[in-house]
Amino acid sequence: MTAPVSMPHVMPTYGRLPIALSHGQGCRVWDTDGREYLDGLGGIAVNTLGHNHPKLVPALQHQLTQIIHACNYYQSPLQEELAKLLVERSGLTNVFFCNSGLEANEAALKIARKYGHDKGIDLPEVVVYEKAFHGRSIATLSATGNPKVQEGFAPLVPGFVRVPLNDIAALKEVAATHPKVSAVFLEVIQGEGGINTAQNEYLQAVRQLCDEQGWLLMLDEVQCGMGRTGKWFAHQWAGIQPDVMPLAKGLGSGVPVGAVVCGPKAAFVLKPGNHGTTFGGNPLAMRAGIETIRIMEADGVMANAATVGAHLKAALVRELGSLPGVTDIRGNGLMLGIELDRSCGVILNRAMEAGLLLSVTADKVIRLVPPLILTEAEADQIVNILAPIVRQFLSEPAAA
Ligand SMILES: Cc1ncc(COP(=O)(O)O)c(C=O)c1O
Fold it and tell me: What pLDDT, in 10s, does the model give residues 310-326?
């Protein structure tokens, strides 16, 4: 193994692995020592089109020669173009652009608050979920349902009511007891929380309750959206529409870009002066989003995510599903989790040493969120590397 790369001048906010990635091609990346890895992580569900994509890179290069940043004082045909693409694919109506997932969620939370105030609610509340992850700003970490993320950052932002996922009775109880709620905010598939899926029937019931109560339905598709599950947006499997949908991660295939896509109830809640961003909607990010969607459609990338995802899941179930210690293999498309009955952070290191990048989330869940261009042969290779590692790990005495 290579010597740890030293980063004495960077704040130690991450426990980093001892490699540095220098370049990539498709679903493969190489470190600065020339070692090759299969990318089962995609920069945490970001590199939709893999690395050095032959259509994306020239489009970005061309954009660099035109204009990189132009600020929101001016009209932006590229913002309008990407907004139209997102609106057409979601059935919603208007988009606000920003730079990241937490920024998209901050904007969503501001919409929820303002929507409540506009209805005469003095201190509006937002329903959020156990095990949710919405980001690391003060408001989004307050919405997050993980005490580790919140530890040390009190006072948290007030105005959140927390419920368990897939428990419609709990949400109805909130409706009966919390008259100040203005919105319900959840991930269709919880990513950081361990690949926990909101069931279709649950989403349909939440939609109905939101309509009855006059609440906004806000679906955080930052991780599960942009084709990862085989539809543009994961909620589309349930046949419902949200009022507010934050996006980021895969939207720009690696170029930072976030968006809040809204339907008619939410699209005009924020008025001029209510919200803004210097970088949001910049031409380079917009070009990345536009080309990502165009290439995905031209090359059948979303269908690939569905078929290769199903192939990968079936192979994981075949190889690992019946092992004592494997409690579940779940997820949709190329957003998959293998849950073990014990903490398994070490699998991340062992997989890396064996040439596979992945992550372990929620302590016990091995997460695979590779580029959506993954081939079946590459999926098989992931399983061939990972299965022996998991078998070996589970055969060892559990750490005390
Ligand atoms: C569902 C979800 N929302 C929001 C975020 C925050 O996104 P960012 O890291 O771009 O701020 C993440 C990041 O993992 C996420 O998975």
Answer: 999 999 999 999 999 99
The type of residue at 227 is: G
CA torsion sign for 100, 102, 106, 112 is: positive
Question: Is residue 106 lining ligand 1, measured as CB closer than 6 Å?
Answer: no
Give me ligand 1 centre to Cα 157, in Å.
18
- Main-chain dihedrals φ then ψ at residue 125, nearest 5 degrees: -120, 155
Contact criterion met (CB below 8 Å) for 156 and 150: yes
What pLDDT does residue 5 have? 65
**Angle (deg, nearest 10), helices 168-177 and 200-213:** 10
Contact 85, 293 (CB under 8 A): yes
Q: Averaged over 69-85, what is the pLDDT? A: 98
pTM here is 0.97
List, for residues 142-198, the tens digit of each pLDDT value. 999 999 999 999 999 999 999 999 999 999 999 999 999 999 999 999 999 999 999
Please choose from 41, 136, 222 the residue to mutate so as to test ligand 1's pocket, defined by most ligand atoms within 8 A of CB: 222
Q: Where are the beta strands (DSSP E) in the chain?
A: 21-25, 28-31, 36-39, 94-98, 125-129, 160-163, 181-187, 189-190, 196-197, 216-220, 244-247, 258-262, 326-332, 335-340, 356-357, 359-361, 365-368
Q: What is the dihedral of CA 343, 345, 348, 351, to 10 degrees?
A: -50
Q: Is the CB–ligand 1 distance for residue 291 below 6 Å?
A: no
| H or E segment to which residue 87 belongs | helix 77-90
Q: What is the mean pLDDT of residues 224-236?
A: 98
Ligand 1 contact via 225 beta carbon (within 6 Å):
no
Using only C-alpha atoms, the chain has a radius of gyration, in whole angstroms, of 21
